[in-house]
Specification:
- This protein is an alpha/beta fold.
- The chain folds into two domains: about 220 residues, Glycogen Phosphorylase B (Rossmann fold, 3-Layer(aba) Sandwich); about 140 residues, Rossmann fold (3-Layer(aba) Sandwich), CATH 3.40.50.2000.
- It is about 40% helix and about 15% strand.
- The chain contains twelve helices and 13 strands.
- Strands 3-2-1-4-5-6-7 form a seven-stranded parallel β-sheet, sandwiched between helices. Strands 10-9-8-11-12-13 form a six-stranded parallel β-sheet, with helices on both faces.
- It starts with a strand and ends with a helix.
- The mean pLDDT is about 95.
């Protein structure tokens, strides 16, 4: 049985970890011995079947500046903490003895973790036979405002990586749209399709049996203002008499949660995010959320009428790029968070709730399975090439 090590670090939200979990489980289902190394805060929920999970000492951040890196108690990490993480990561690699290593996001992000990632890549490079090294990335990257950062990514990809797996569909978003030097990239780029937990609904559901407005913000690290605005928007909506269920993610502080409870009206429910989020969405008439990768797919799969408010704080561009594509395809009502007010959000809810014609999602969504198939094929190709050379 071939072994695969999957490295993932989530910081503000939990989407990176959820996607990595799905991929790890698909790899295990395909017959790989999978070791999932995760470096963010534990989130609970169902663990992937047949996967060995290694939890490093947690690293998190306070806001979208992503600095400084902090430990589980929000204290800035020091060199001793970095050393401990690095040693445990290298030990996990030695234990797995993998035929392939998947780096979630790196080298196209997670630059702040290079204190442990570059030593791991050096260790991989010294291993014989050397494992296949793959970068596993979402369909849209954060735009870099400094060309030297993209050059750095390009150099790391050329130095260390054998392939890039883009978890999307080229017809929706192209890798080169958000990476300027894609034409100079040496490792080949493969599109796996989106990593979706459920099939995407072909059309938005009718009102029957759906009676709630569900408001969410993923992990919630930067979502409390959206949730608060939704509560303030409820009285201004034509659908104010429906239940508005507000789900506060695990990264929202107790003080933030209490703030939401204090402003909730009689027809609003404020609760912590639930492990059955996908099931809650199945009962939603309208969903209000940010436009992260996983949340977007969960909302579209549910058949709820979608209102997306892409997060653009601190220069973030990824969610806005996704939101613009969804709006152009008539798959959602999209609100610019820079113009977000209770009134604009209430109008968006009313628009979504009364809209009759919606676009159709027609993009590949079996990304986890296809990642496993593709990885197996690349390993087989490498083995055949090695036998031919011998």
């Amino acid at each position: 049985m071939k072994s695969v090590l999957v490295y993932v670090q989530h910081l503000l939200g939990i989407g990176h970890l959820m996607r990595a979990r799905q991929i790890a489980e698909a790899l295990a289902d395909h017959g790989f011995d999978v070791h999932l190394v995760t470096g963010g805060m534990p989130i609970g929920g169902r663990m992937p079947r047949g996967v060995r999970t290694v939890q490093l000492p947690a690293i998190r951040v306070s806001d979208a500046s992503f600095t400084p890196l902090r430990d589980a108690t929000f204290e800035p990490i020091d060199d001793a903490y970095r050393t401990r993480r690095r040693e445990l990561l290298l030990a996990a690699y030695a234990e797995a003895a993998p035929s392939a290593v998947l780096f979630e996001t790196f080298p196209f992000g997670r630059r702040a973790l290079r204190f442990e990632l570059l030593p791991l890549l050096e260790r991989i490079d010294a291993t014989r036979p050397r494992p296949l090294v793959v970068s596993s990335i979402r369909e849209i990257l954060q735009l870099q405002h400094k060309p030297e950062r993209e050059r750095e990514m390009l150099a790391w990809a050329a130095r260390w990586f054998d392939a890039i797996f883009v978890h999307g569909d080229r017809r929706f978003a192209r890798f080169e749209d958000t990476f300027s030097f894609a034409g100079e990239l040496l490792p080949p780029v493969h599109y796996t399709g989106f990593v979706a937990a459920r099939p995407i609904a072909e059309r938005n559901a009718a009102d029957g049996g759906r009676d709630e407005i569900v408001v969410s913000a993923g992990g919630g690290g930067v979502g409390v203002d959206l949730l608060a605005t939704a509560l303030a928007a409820q009285p201004h909506s034509r659908f104010r008499d429906r239940t508005w269920r507000v789900l506060a993610g695990p990264n929202i502080t107790d003080a933030g949660f209490e703030r939401l409870q204090s402003i909730a009206g009689k027809r609003a429910i404020v609760e912590r995010a639930r492990v059955d989020f996908a099931d809650v969405l199945q009962r939603a008439f309208v969903s209000i959320s940010q436009a992260g990768y996983n949340t977007t797919l969960d909302v579209l799969a549910s058949g709820a009428r979608a209102v997306f408010v892409p997060f653009t704080g601190n220069g973030e561009t990824e969610q806005r790029a996704r939101g613009l594509r969804l709006a152009a395809l008539d798959l959602a009502v999209v609100v610019d968070d820079r113009a977000l007010t209770p009134l604009t959000l209430a109008q968006a809810v009313d628009d979504a709730a009364t809209r009759e014609a919606w676009g159709r999602w027609d993009f590949a969504c079996d990304g986890a399975t296809q990642t496993a198939v593709l990885l197996a094929r690349l390993l087989d190709d490498r083995a055949r090439a090695g036998r031919s050379a011998a």
